[in-house]
Amino acid sequence: MKMRLRHLHRDERGMTFAFVAVGLMAFLAASTLAVDVGMFMTARSQAQNSADAGALAGAVALAFDDFNNRTPTGPAVQSAIAAALGNQVMRGAVSVEPGDVTFTASPTGQFNRVRVDVYRTGDRNNSIGTLIGPIFGVPTVEIIAMATAEATPANAMTCVKPFTIPDRWVENSIPKNGTFDRYDNKGALLPNADVYIEPDQPGYVGYDSDVDKGTPLMIRAGTGNNIEPSMYWSWKMPQEIGGDFYRENIANCNKAVFGYKSMMQPEPGAMAGPTADGIDDLIAKDPNARWDEGQKKVITDLHPTPRIFPIPLYDPDFYQSGKANGRDASLRMANWVGFFVESRNGNNVFGRIVPILGVIDPNAGPAPAGAFPYAIRLVQ
Questions:
Q1: Would the pLDDT of 221 be above 90?
Q2: pLDDT at residue 61 above 80?
Q3: Would you state the pLDDT for residue 14?
Q4: Residue 277: enclosing H or E segment and its boundaries?
């Protein structure tokens, strides 16, 4: 018996099974790490995509649909929810409720940020099941993602057109005559002089993307030196010259970026013919787009539609003071207005004022308080 116990003590048979058992446990642990943790990371990335999409959609709706409506049924909240739900996580829907869409202030103090939280959790009855985890007592995992987007005033613009109309001014003429009259031919102020207030100054009365949304606007080629509200001046964009280049820049997008107070050199002549041709080409790219007065929006199958574009607004004071003091005719950008072109009749182009997206130029200064365009960007 003693010999038998000593033999068993030294017997190594069966150790393979012990090693196999330990190795199997290690393999299962590694499988959990490779499968479940990998799945968890994928789900986390997809949830972040969902939150990002929701925040961006909410910020776009805030800027383009109704900046003042932050109610649960308003366009910003509903657009954020719809966009977030449109991005599944591991082939399952996230949970986003109206209370998960909140509005916060930017460093400027303006409540122009939209935060969206998305959930796949046990509390929302949509947690994510694991594959190997149940063996180790982890049958599900929970995912929460958050994103914040901002509808911030843009400090620059691209895809502008080679014609420009004056920004709005304060009409003081008696009787009102619909033209900007501030200086006489010697550069002195006129009695009851009209006043232009720049968009970075208090009291700016220029075009507003919220107040003026949907307002009909007819623009036409200008003649003489009068400054009238809808009269456009043609100006020479960078690079090439000539009528073909001018028409091309109306029908398509010139990628040059312009900041506030960028200078514009007027084109000789009204360029009425190339303007009409370019507008016709632009309308032909999306012939079925239309303005819906009930919804106060453009109905189109193209997003974005090329028939919405920015028109640069020039500073009427700068132009007229230059002419009165003997400077060469020069135009200076003061702002931009979004324009949906509806039709053209001869020299007259008809459309609607609409919100427009601008860009953020890191080399430019801050956007003025009265900036018309917004830039949409993720900030968190």
A1: no
A2: yes
A3: 55
A4: helix 272-285
Please, what is the average pLDDT of the chain? 87
Domain boundary among 152, 171, 198: 152
Residue with tokens 């694991």: 130
- Rounded Cα distance between 229 and 216, Å, is 13
Residues 115 and 55: their CA atoms lie apart, in Å, by 6
> CB under 8 Å to 80, separation ≥6 — which residues?
54, 55, 57, 58, 61, 96, 101, 114, 116
Residues 226 and 308 in one domain: yes
Cα–Cα distance for residue pair 270/163, rounded to 1 Å: 9
How is the chain split among helix, strand and coil, in percent rounded to 5? 30, 25, 45
In this structure, what are the phi and psi dihedrals at residue 232, rounded to the nearest 5 degrees? -100, 150
Structure tokens at 194: 């009209």
Question: Which two structure tokens, joined as six digits, stand for 141?
Answer: 């995992």
| Residue 311 CB neighbour total at 10 angstroms | 25
Pairing between β-strand 101-104 and β-strand 156-157 as defined by DSSP bridges: unpaired
- Domain span at residue 133 reads 16-152
Rounded to whole angstroms, the Cα distance separating 231 from 127 reads 60
Q: Which amino acid is at 306?
A: P
**Predicted TM-score of the model (pTM):** 0.80
Do residue 202 and residue 132 come from a single domain?
no
Is 191 found in the same domain as 61? no
Size of the chain, expressed as the number of residues it contains:
380
CA dihedral 342, 347, 353, 354 (to 10 degrees): 50
Residue 264 near residue 235, CB atoms below 8 Å: yes
- Given the DSSP bridges, would you call strands 331-345 and 263-266 parallel, antiparallel or unpaired? antiparallel
The amino acid at 96: V
Q: Do residues 283 and 343 lie in contact, with contact meaning Cβ atoms separated by under 8 Å?
A: yes
